[in-house]
Amino acid sequence: MHGVRDRSDDRRRRDPFGPAEPPHGGRHFRGGRRKGAAASQAKDIAVAGQQRDGLVVRPFTPDDRAAWDPLWQGYLTFYRSTLPEAEPVHGLAACLDGEVVGIVHYLYHRSTWAPGHYCYLEDLFTSEKARNRGVGRALIEAVYERARAAGASRVYWHTHETNTTAQALYGKVAALSGFLQYRKVL
Questions:
Q1: CA-based angle 96:94:11, to the nearest 5?
Q2: 117 and 29 in contact (C-beta within 8 Å)?
């Protein structure tokens, strides 16, 4: 599975190891308060730490940086891109037998079309050896669960029109919106 979208116009490197603040300064979108660290950690395990055939999807830890970097570089290489600065986002790691084999980055943003926020799945990448083993699907489903728990009304992403391998999965886990993206690089 390759990346979610064309990154040729992005200027900032994402840093999923930095402090990515939850929407509304620590509150869920629909007004609920965030619970303490122990409850949050238990939720991480319940939502994204479920194991399936040796595959575990969980939040990044500082110890994951060395394993994350080659996957992130593989993603950037796939899109022939580089990103110099850091910007905090949410991130999850997919691990098979204790090895990080997939990554996903996502963020929340407001919408003029919905009372709650949207969740944008920005980057998704798996190592060659992890492809066709359910890693991409597990990462997407883990983002769905986290977005649902945070009160987001939808999860969405983009992919390049030539990325037909990833589109085969995306068509099974989401609906194609029919919208075209226009952009102007500034």
A1: 140
A2: yes
One digit per residue, pLDDT tens: the chain, 186 residues?
Answer: 444 444 444 444 455 665 444 444 433 332 332 333 333 333 443 444 556 678 888 888 888 888 888 887 887 888 777 765 565 689 999 999 989 999 999 999 998 888 889 999 999 999 999 999 999 999 999 999 999 999 999 999 999 999 999 999 999 999 999 988 899 989
**Long-range contacts, 61-69 (Cβ 8 Å, 24+):** 61/93, 62/17, 64/17, 64/93, 64/100, 65/17, 67/93, 67/99, 67/100, 68/16, 68/17, 68/93, 68/100, 68/103
Instruction: Please provide the distance, in angstroms rounded to a whole number, between the alpha carbons at the two ends of the chain.
Output: 30
Superfamily the domain 12-173 falls into:
Gcn5-related N-acetyltransferase (GNAT) (3.40.630.30)
Which residue from 110, 141, 136, 109 is spatially nearest to 123, judged by alpha carbons? Answer: 136
User: What does the CA dihedral 26, 27, 28, 33 come to, rounded to 10 degrees?
Assistant: 120
